[in-house]
Amino acid sequence: MANKADLAAAVEAALSPDGPLARATPGFAPRAGQVQLACAVAQTFERGGALVAEAATGVGKTYAYLIPALLAGQRALLSTATKTLQDQLFGRDLPRLIEALGVPVQTALLKGRASYICPHRLAFAGQSLATHEAHLLDQLVRVEHWARGSAAGDLAELPALDERSPLVPLVTSTRENCLGADCPQFRACPVNRARRAALVADLVVINHHLFFADLAVRESGMAELLPTVRAVVFDEAHQLNEIGVQFLGRNLGTGQLLDLARDLLAAGLQWARGLADWPGLAARLERAARDLRLTAGSARGSRLRWPGVAPEGVDEAGWQQGMAAIAEALEQVGAGLDTVSELAPDFVRLAARAQLLAGRAGAFTQPAAPDAVRWLDVTGTLRLTESPLDIADVVRARLLGQDGSDEQDIQNGWEAQDAPGAPVPPPGRPKAERVPSGGSAPCAAGSVGAHNAWIFVSATLGDDERLTWFTEPCGLQDARVLRVGSPFDYARQAALYVPPDLARPGDSAHSAQVAQLAGDAAGRIGGRTLVLTTTLRALRIIGDLLAERLGASLDVLVQGQLPKRVILERFVQGERHGRGCVLVASSSFWEGVDVPGDALQLVVIDKLPFPPPDDPLVEARCKRLQAQGRSPFADFSLPEAAVALKQGAGRLIRRETDQGIVVICDTRLTGMSYGRRLLVALPPMRRLSGPAAFEAALADLARRA
After folding, report:
1. How far apart are CA 366 and CA 230, in angstroms?
2. Is the dihedral of CA 319, 322, 328, 331 positive or negative?
3. Helix (H, G, I), strand (E, B) or coil at 663
4. Are 235 and 85 in contact (CB under 8 A)?
5. Angle at 190 between CA 184 and CA 191, to 5 degrees
6. Cα–Cα distance between 536 and 587 in angstroms, integer?
7. Using an 8 Å Cβ cutoff, are 70 and 103 in contact?
8. For the chain, how far is it from start to end, CA to CA, in angstroms?
9. What are the phi and psi torsion angles at 217 (to 5°)?
10. CA 512, 588, 247 angle in degrees (round to 5)?
11. Which helix (H) or strand (E) holds 234?
């Protein structure tokens, strides 16, 4: 391993034409941008502080931060936004680099609880299945068979188990229902095995959700890790703010109440049958949760503003009555559990969960915290949420060790017990510990300090030189900023087309016209098409129209029909599966989708991805900017659209040999004054001047195929 002062030189040597990577990797070629980024990361490891680096597609950012981390000889955390990238780093990239560089580095993979089987809950999962859920018993048998032979207990080893399956919460634990050291399966617990491995590893691969969960509640094992870590690298850092606010607020879901009722009934019938009216207590809590859902009426798939006593559009008297019924049901559950608390540790944990949820319910009957926004998520269940507008204060106080006055505000406004899924500490253990700012305490309780290295990397972090879209909400305005361009020849590899005669977005004909254009083009090139929509309504309309038109000749895949992993596997296979594919998707498919080669040659974006103005969090952020005398459109909505558009268009070109067309079906891009800012944010693709040029480009792709 390199000495501290020599780290940048060692990194540059590792990436040289005759270095260890070139010797171990056939076809390896040095990339100037990758070397530039890797040296900047190495310098940050040496000096400490924060580096914000935007590395465009093709730079090779993963190796650019992994090589300094491996050669530094310091403990580090590597955090990603997705478990998929976690598995790739740990299972593929790190082993390759460790072998090529010849460094004796021990690595570990650490995920959240929901990723690991819980042996204790697995043992009585069958009792938690209702009569109408008997179809899940076959899945449960397969999970039990797998668990007996699995060393890691990581559900990623079970690709056939859909992560959306209702069986998953029955065989995994949460902070609320984990028994901790009182669990009879504690020593065999996969979660604890993973944590023990992480405590002795040099590099630990985690994810942003786990990092912020620990930041809020000091429970996941990170509290022991962070004091000994010299550097933290956040890959896919563009998701950091949105993930962070999920964990730094408070929430209560009717799903949590239903889970408690189910676990209460199962534990009561197993450990204390006849000692309390377990069916009655569970039914009362279930009824209170379902009645509260009914107060939201027919609203579904939306966020309701919540500026006053009740969410907008919800009857105040009915809402208050529903919340009171939940409080009463939780109180009765607690009273029933008090009579059997000594019989099994399950009852102690259930009582603490009931107390925790009762506290959250009480908090939602009081006014929202200052500088926060509250809303109601309405899906199949309800989710009551109160959130800070960004993570800036938390990052400055707890990560960078800056102004300690912010830390007191954070402790006052966002306590651990209010975090989503916050743990219930064992008896005698405080929920959070106060540590003076700037000390050597874990990040979750105080600040790690500015002497540590904090590295934030992504392909898309903003549309200006200072990357303010990312740095401002993350409190990183003083960080060193680096932008590394892509090595791809976009003018040769990719073309941009804005159809001139489409209806404006919002017009009833727009989605049908997008479907017609995408269908015509996909038919010409044999599928190979990804259609990205900005709304679920457009997703359904375009998906249905394309399936009706192309279903006889192409496979039309629509987000939601199958798990994301399964849909992507089929799309990547393309014509090798027998028929070409068209994929219609929204939300998560705008980023993190890597389809290199000829399987994807056309990306169609239905309209400019401006954030929805009626979203409560968006609205609150815009109001704050307005109060500061700034423009909500220029300083928030436009940068948001630029970043999202760049992410969506970035799905097309993933390798030096890829070729294709991006079609943006929104004439505002060329007809409005702000369109130039959005165009500049896109990769420098050549522009197609009209329908004839578009047809010619399609014909060229068809010949290439």
Report:
1. 41
2. negative
3. strand
4. yes
5. 95
6. 9
7. yes
8. 47
9. -135, 0
10. 135
11. strand 231-234
Average pLDDT, the chain: 87
The total of other beta-carbon atoms located within 10 Å of residue 410's CB is: 17
For the whole model, what pTM was predicted?
0.88
**The amino acid at 705:** A
- pLDDT-derived band at 7, boundaries 50, 70, 90: very high
Strand-pair partners of 52: 456, 481
CA distance 535 to 533: 6
**Cβ pair 515, 522 in contact under 8 A:** no
What does the DSSP assignment read for 193-221? Answer: HHHHHHHT-SEEEEEHHHHHHHHHHS-SS
252 - beta bridge partners? Answer: 384
Contact 394, 244 (CB under 8 A): yes
Alpha-carbon separation of residue 533 from 6, 103, 277, 567, 603 (angstroms): 48, 45, 50, 16, 11
In residues, how long is the chain?
705
Q: How far apart are CA 635 and CA 469, in angstroms?
A: 8
What is the CA angle 134-138-143, rounded to 5?
A: 125
Cα(389)–Cα(472) distance, integer angstroms: 12
Interstrand relation of 555-558 and 529-532 (parallel, antiparallel or unpaired): unpaired
| Half-sphere exposure (Cβ direction) of 680: Cα atoms closer than 13 Å | 11
Q: How many CB atoms lie within 10 A of CB 369?
A: 18
Angle between helices 7-14 and 61-71 (to 10 degrees): 130
| Per-residue pLDDT, 223 | 58
Strand ranges (E), 516-558: 529-532, 555-558
Q: How confident is the model at residue 357 (pLDDT cuts 50, 70, 90)?
A: very high
Q: How far is CA 595 from CA 190, 272, 536, 551, 697, in A?
A: 33, 54, 23, 22, 20
Question: How many CB atoms sit inside 10 A of residue 188's CB?
Answer: 12
